[in-house]
């Protein structure tokens, strides 16, 4: 065990935090955690899965799932991070040592850190698409195009490995520059600029959407439940997305929690982050659906909604080039803040465990992630027929890109979240939890019971459903 780990494992469970750095304020943590939670899942995935699952009823179920599943696990992950005061893996090592639990529980954190790292490798490729589309929209290439020509632009991008490599490299460089600068000079300073800018851009695009004449239709679609359109599959999708949208099960909230001062309420900050993340998802819907409806397009257009359906709409609307550019800039900001958080847990561990300085650990982790991303790029074109695990029915036809997405979203993240709920709810001492959360006995009891009983069952259902 490293010196840092030994320190954390000793009685007080309070390592020398000043050396590692802390968030300067509650707002700094909220912005960073919200920046992690707000990503492509909010602006890309939430609108299209809402469209596919009938709108209002799906949104209502999603909000309930955020409250009953996402929030309890977020609080548990932040609690682990602050309790241990180290990287996710070393925090788990410190807590299990302090409480006399089996050291094998540290694999809970290993799964999370691995999941975040694998996600970043292909997430960076998608972030590169957004960077590419900023230039495409700004230069007027979307104006007056047909659906076929818009589709050709996207297909042309995916079929060009060198262009994809260029944008992937740029996105990873943006992430690494921020992470290398540390907690206050890097992460905190970046999110203090990017998150307000993201909200402003989002509100500007929503304002533009209000001029389309179809804003009322979009509001009705999002907020008037029609339960006849909601299926069992839709409920499970809502449950799964509520879990994934908050960056749970990937070590991020543990890492960010390790920088959280002791005098800041975990419950209040977690609730604020959940509310802000949900607000961004709903605002993204209010930005996108009026434009979709105004152009007679389908709200359930699937994953192509952002990169094929919306570009078609922007190309047909007044000032479409300007607002298309702003929209994809918004997408970059969302992806960038999430990318930063995905790299942080591994960098934090390399600093502690291997004694690397911040810049070297960032460079090492970033380069390996960048190299893995190249495999995802090639799977979109030159290796599009290569399915590494195709001999198994579950993975049949899945390229490297598809495989990484499936393994993380359907196996590693729910497994990590399930283990967090079980570990905190059933194995950590109640005294330790009460000490960290500092909530009223009644509120604590509600959270504790939900985390112990309802949350693990809900996550397990999603886990099994995704596999079956």
Automatic annotation (TrEMBL):
SUPFAM superfamilies, alphabetically? SNF-like (SSF161070)
Q: Which UniProt keywords apply?
A: Membrane, Symport, Transmembrane, Transmembrane helix, Transport
What InterPro entries does UniProt report for this protein, alphabetically? Na/ntran_symport, SNS_sf, YocR/YhdH-like
TM ranges: 27-44, 56-80, 107-131, 164-183, 190-210, 230-259, 271-293, 322-343, 363-383, 403-429, 450-467
PROSITE patterns per record: NA_NEUROTRAN_SYMP_1, NA_NEUROTRAN_SYMP_3
Please give the superkingdom of this protein's source.
Bacteria
CDD domains, per this entry?
SLC6sbd_Tyt1-Like
Where, per UniProt, does this protein localize? Membrane
Q: How does it sit in the membrane?
A: Multi-pass membrane protein
Pfam families on file: SNF
Q: Does the keyword Cytoplasm apply?
A: no
Q: Does the keyword Transmembrane helix apply?
A: yes
Q: Which family does it belong to?
A: Belongs to the sodium:neurotransmitter symporter (SNF) (TC 2.A.22) family.
Q: Which NCBIfam families match?
A: Na_transp
Q: What is this protein called?
A: Transporter
Species of origin reads Marinobacter iranensis
């Amino acid at each position: 065990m490293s010196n840092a780990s030994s320190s954390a494992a000793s009685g007080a469970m309070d390592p020398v935090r000043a050396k590692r750095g802390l968030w300067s304020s509650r707002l700094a943590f909220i912005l960073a955690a919200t920046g992690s939670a707000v990503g492509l899942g909010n602006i890309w995935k939430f609108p299209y899965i809402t469209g596919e699952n009938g709108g209002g009823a799906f949104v209502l179920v999603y909000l309930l799932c955020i409250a009953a599943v996402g929030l309890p696990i977020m609080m548990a992950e932040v609690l682990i991070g602050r309790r241990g005061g180290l990287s996710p893996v070393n925090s788990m090592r410190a807590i299990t040592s302090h409480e006399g639990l089996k050291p094998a529980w540290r694999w809970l954190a290993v799964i999370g850190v691995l999941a975040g790292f694998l996600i970043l490798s292909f997430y960076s490729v998608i972030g590169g698409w957004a960077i590419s589309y900023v230039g495409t929209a700004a230069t007027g290439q979307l104006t007056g195009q047909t659906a076929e020509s818009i589709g050709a632009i996207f297909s042309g991008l995916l079929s060009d490995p060198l262009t994809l490599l260029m944008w992937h490299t740029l996105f990873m460089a943006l992430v690494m520059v921020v992470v290398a600068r540390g907690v206050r000079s890097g992460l905190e300073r970046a999110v203090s600029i990017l998150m307000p800018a993201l909200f402003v851009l989002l509100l500007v695009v929503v304002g533009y959407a209000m001029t389309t004449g179809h804003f009322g239709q979009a509001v009705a679609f999002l907020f008037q439940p029609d339960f006849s359109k909601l299926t069992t599959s839709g409920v499970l999708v809502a449950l799964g997305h509520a879990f994934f949208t908050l960056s749970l099960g990937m070590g991020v909230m543990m890492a960010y929690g390790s920088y959280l001062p002791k005098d800041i309420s975990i419950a209040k900050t977690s609730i604020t982050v959940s509310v802000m993340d949900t607000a961004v998802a709903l605002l993204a819907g209010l930005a996108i659906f009026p434009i979709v409806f105004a152009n007679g397009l389908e709200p359930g257009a699937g994953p192509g909604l952002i990169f094929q359906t919306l570009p078609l709409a922007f190309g047909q609307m007044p000032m479409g080039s300007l607002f298309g550019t702003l929209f994809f800039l918004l997408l970059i900001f969302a992806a960038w803040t999430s990318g930063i958080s995905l790299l942080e847990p591994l960098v934090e561990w390399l600093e502690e465990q291997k004694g690397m300085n911040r810049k070297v650990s960032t460079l090492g982790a970033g380069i390996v992630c960048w190299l893995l991303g190249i495999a995802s790029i090639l799977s979109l074109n030159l290796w599009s027929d290569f399915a590494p695990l195709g001999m198994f029915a579950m993975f049949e036809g899945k390229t490297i890109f598809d495989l990484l997405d499936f393994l993380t979203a359907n196996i590693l993240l729910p497994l990590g979240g399930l283990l967090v709920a079980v570990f905190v709810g059933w194995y950590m001492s109640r005294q330790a939890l009460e000490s960290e959360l500092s909530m009223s006995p009644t509120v604590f009891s509600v959270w504790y019971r939900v985390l112990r009983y309802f949350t693990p069952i809900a996550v397990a259902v999603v886990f099994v459903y995704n596999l079956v």
